[in-house]
Fold these 4 entries.
Entry 1:
Amino acid sequence: MPLSMSACYRILIVDDSLDDREIYKHHLARSRQLRYVYKETDRVDAALELCREFHPDCILLDYNLPDGSGLDLLERLAPEFPPHAVSTVMLTGQGNEEIIVQALKMGAADYISKGRISADGLCRIVYRAIEKRSLLRNLHEEQQEKDQLIVELKEALAQVKRLSGLLPICSNCKKVRDDKGYWQQVEVYIGEHSEADFSHGFCPDCMKALYPGIVEKISQKTPES
């Protein structure tokens, strides 16, 4: 599903510089593609709590924070917020290639050098990160639907298999033994293992055996062909 200009996408800014946070918001306000609302913090612990409350679409994450690093937050986010739930853009200084590689391995969607941030560049990277998150979410939902369908098909096949095998049936009373060893009337067993319903009546032979007088009267009233 394409991103919508009419929607407000949620951005969580995690940076210990108030000036930098204002710059990010100023740049993103110039976006011609998307509109944003913001939450801000400079702490790892607070960022994790905001993720639970605010459910951001994208996190702008600085590496150096007073109570840890951006990588610490990525590690703590992973169990609760996989890439299909939130996209993270790592903000790094120049010459931090090792940090960038590690961040990408830990689930960050992209990165940008703080010394090279421009309005166009930041808007493009944030748009791309949110678009990636949207695509991953759609794939995740499709996979969940497929998994559910597989479960339902397996259950249906198990039912068919149970009804297609040999049924232990009593030669005298015609009760059927189920897989737990209990004996049931055949209509009860089939009713529990299929969608069949039963309407009770008598076959002609049983009717003659049980109610011969009624059968004789019906025969007398029936004109011969």
Note: The chain has a mean pLDDT of 85.
Entry 2:
Amino acid sequence: MNILSRLNSPFIYLICAVIVVFVALLCVIFAVRAYRAGKAIGMDVTRMKRTIVASATFAVLPSVGILLGVIALSGSLGTPWPWLRLSVIGALHYETQVAEAAAEAVGVGGLSASQMTAEAFTTIALLMSVCIMWGMVFSLFTCRRYTDRLSRPAPKKKKDGKGLSLAGFGDRAMTAMFIGLVSAYLGSYVGTLVSGGGLFRFAGSFLPLAVALVGAAAMGLFIRLRERYDAAWIDSFSIAGSMLIAMTAAIFLGKLA
């Protein structure tokens, strides 16, 4: 039995399914309690139902990107593990990047299914889990204090109009983190282009950069449409839409290269 057959075994499916079903039940319980709480405080039932339908509708397209991530990772990590990660706590951009970094560290280039071993999968799965668990751990000790600070009145701005609230700092810190993350991954390809290294290395570096530019342009277009037409609903589709456009561009550019 090869490694993919073991990773797709009924036993692995059972373990992952139990966790996914448990989390799904928690979501249903919280949704029902929230609906009942809304009725108890006098919220309009019709408006709540419209909100539920709209939220469910807007969740369809973003979930396509998650499904693509599961499909992309299932070729080398099996289906149950990516399904569990991207259904419960994982994020698509995090899972794929950390999985690729861990695979390169253990010598499985490009998450190759032919090179995958039990030891390599264990290392990849462990790294994916350890790196993302700290949000849950820190929330146990800091979330209550953080929410208490958010509920306080906003600090007065200085005379020059400048001032940064706790929530504003969190938004800027998250943006800075993602800029740094993207820069780190694209930096190696930019370095290869600058330093040369032959036609094949140039083509291998140009394709990821070109796809990144296409994805960035698509996201910029979505943001422009959202601001121009004041269409907040576009935010729910922008990430998945940009990913689909970038993936399509990768297919065509890959054939040209």
Note: The first helix runs from residue 3 to 7.
Entry 3:
Amino acid sequence: MKINNLLKISLLVCPLLFSCNTKRESNSESSSQSEPKEDEISVVVLAGQSNMEGNSWSQYVSTSYGFTQDEVDRIKAGYDGIKMDYRCFWNGAPNAGTDSYGLFMPVKLGQANTTNKFGPEIGIADYLTEQGLSGEVALMKYAVGASALDPAAGEWGSPSSGKAKNGKWYDNMLALVSDGLETLAEDTGKKPVIKAFCWMQGETDAGNTSYRNNYFLNTKNLVSDLRDEWQEDSKEGGFTFIDAYISQYWGGYTQINAAKSQYNDLDKNSLLIDTIKAGLEYDKQPTGSVDYYHYDAASMFELGHLFGEQIQKAL
């Protein structure tokens, strides 16, 4: 009799225990969905033209030019925990030392148009490291100076543009990312997952009326095609597209930036950096021979930080 009563009690209690455990596990899973899994490494792809390629001068990383001493020390030490596979071209030809040749190297000065310049990867690596994400994020950069998104240029045009062939830089970037994903898996023993695609481009398109008029559609095609291409390698729902305004220096910048804003309003999985509101400068360096096309060193570092803030949201 006592055994039967105990059996009845156990039959009543066990489902309750099972139900409670199931709810606890479900809550735990939902609370950690936004955190990188231990067996994954987050991938961020950087692409575009010369301000992504990196044309800000390393010689101005100094307290005399808007940096704090702590920032100077961190930048010059490099970022061992944030590695990058990169290829930077000027008019289609790499300069010496501006290609990692398929290797993931710690982010440092000189991974840009020339070895005495840098791009937004420095600020990105600095921000991610300061946020405790060292070792959890890898970068892949493919950027080409003076390149256009419009498919008529044959450079960044994607399949949805309707052209018989993709743009050469578009296809080359796909190859770099494909190889990089394999290398990263081998190097880390983790599954690489593309979390964000950062795009710093539009200056060349700003100078051409037809390119400007089609910039919104071309952006839409680019992101859609890349999400299709990288579907199996991206986070659930696809990578987050992170775009940035071009500077006021460029004729036609208002139309390009309006197209960027229009796309950002359309795509709920996109983020947009207002470089103008941020006050990024391009009119002081190099001293005595200003390069108005590219951001001054402290502003390039800040651009990287702005990208880093958005990347963290995408992880």
Note: Residues 155 and 167 are 4 Å apart (CA to CA).
Entry 4:
Amino acid sequence: MLPARIDVARLQARTGRPVVHLDECDSTNLIARQRARVLLQQGDVRRRALPLVVAEHQLAGRGRLDRRWRSLPRHNLLFSLILGPDLTLVDAPRAVLAWAAALAETLDVSLKWPNDLVDGDGHKLGGVLAEHEPGPDPDRVGLLVLGVGVNVLQTEFPRLPQATSLARLRPRSVFDRTELMADLVRAVDGVDLAAPDLLERWRARDRTIGRRVRVGGVEGVATGIRDDGALLVDGRPVLAGDVELIGAR
């Protein structure tokens, strides 16, 4: 028997966002980007309630570096938030880190740079994929789509030994996917992007700093993240890439 579907009315009431709810789609990010383009064409995006796109199942879910992510129907959280537009392109990467930190705090899990949600051993239970939809100002974000995937009820991950889920981490817990998604959306919407210590929340949940890593052809010790969100590896900045943890702290 499949778990219950997301309760759309309750989700809309708790988040204050219009909800686009789909039983199945290729990718919530694709749908959200289409919605974002229409909103930008209509103008006045600052005055509109930006939608939340939710799927019970994805056929072409993907993470960073175009990796495929398969999820059992109605078992996990698959959603995309449309965010912005008061954000410069320069500030966008650190904003995404701050949003990922808000998700990690809500789930009480850790982070691997840049946006992987992991347990204490580095097993991945979710992640974030941010995509920019350009607007009229080339220096500013038109709208930003933040795709979020979290393994909740699924417990088997064939050929993915590093994957985990909330049900695996907390087997005695009962998870209400609607409430959990509402909590995550509200956490993202509640982030103050003007806070001077914006990235401290990310650093507090980090599992990367102090580890020997390999990323983007660079290998060394991750020594910190700059205020623009770049990872420092032996003092050298890495702006993007997939981090492989190859040594203990």
Note: The chain has six helices and twelve strands.
